[in-house]
Amino acid sequence: MFIEQGFKPNDNRFWKYIVGSIAVIGASVIGQIPFGIAIAVKAAMNNMPMPTGTEMMTILESNLTLFLMLISFPVALLGLYLIVKFFHRQSFLQITTSRNKIDWSRVFFAFGIWAVISIASVGIDYIANPENYELNFKAVPFLILAVIAIILIPLQTSTEEYVFRGYLMQGFGVLAKNRWFPLLMTSVIFGSMHIFNPEVQKLGNIILVYYIGTGLFLAIITLMDEGMELALGFHAANNLITALLVTTDWTVFQTHSVLKDISEPSVGLTIFIPVFIVFPILLLIFAKKYKWTNWKEKLTGRIIFEEKN
């Protein structure tokens, strides 16, 4: 069982997950140093004060900004790998899946199905509301974006998945000895981490329903499937397709994508449709394909683990 793999007598106590999380944050901060240096140099060259907040996202060329933002994630992932291996004395596979090896077919299936849905939804909206978009495609900047995105965005999304649906999922399981607590806690923390995103400032806190709902969906498929493979594929497709296909002036990633959404942002059904309609449909598809059963026990049941002296 996936979540039980975090239970290692005398090695895994909840305080270790607190220390480990702080260490991962520290590694991420180290990975952000090049971004900070580049911004400081650019500001000095332009004889301007050091930018803060959303201004930091616009001072550099967008491909360079994206690259420098994303390189902190491989650093954080390396930090997490070292923490799991040497501090918790676990293999990285144990926070990935309960299977003997990573099932890449699951990763690619989840990636493919969400990529198709994402592309189709943008295509339908473009046809229905062409006035909301303008063509943003420029061959050379787009090709540079594609290289950066294809290499680094899966590392970014994988880092987030390993932290939330792997490391912290097992950590909160160790703390609570049940499944519903890690299910809810990882979802709420994951969603709340987006509160400083520009889109939250633009649309209001109501958009956190989408982020927390997405975290809940990813946590459910991880617990039901006894591994992170589906979550890894879904999250990679979500961020990669968005970065390549459409950008706006008010989201956290502003890229040389194919299209630019120039509509005035507003809170509408598009925020709630994925959480309350699309994600439940995906759950049914995954459940049928992978023959999920015993939902109540896997999502809310107690974890019984007897420590041996």
Automatic annotation (TrEMBL):
One GO biological-process annotation of the entry reads: CAAX-box protein maturation
Q: Which domain of life is it from?
A: Bacteria
Transmembrane region(s): 17-44, 64-87, 107-128, 140-159, 180-197, 203-223, 230-247, 267-287
Molecular function terms, GO-annotated: endopeptidase activity; metallopeptidase activity
This protein's UniProt keywords: Hydrolase, Membrane, Metalloprotease, Protease, Transmembrane, Transmembrane helix
Q: Which residues form the CAAX prenyl protease 2/Lysostaphin resistance protein A-like domain?
A: 143-241
**Can you say what this protein is called?**
CPBP family intramembrane metalloprotease
> To which species is this protein native?
Flavobacterium macacae
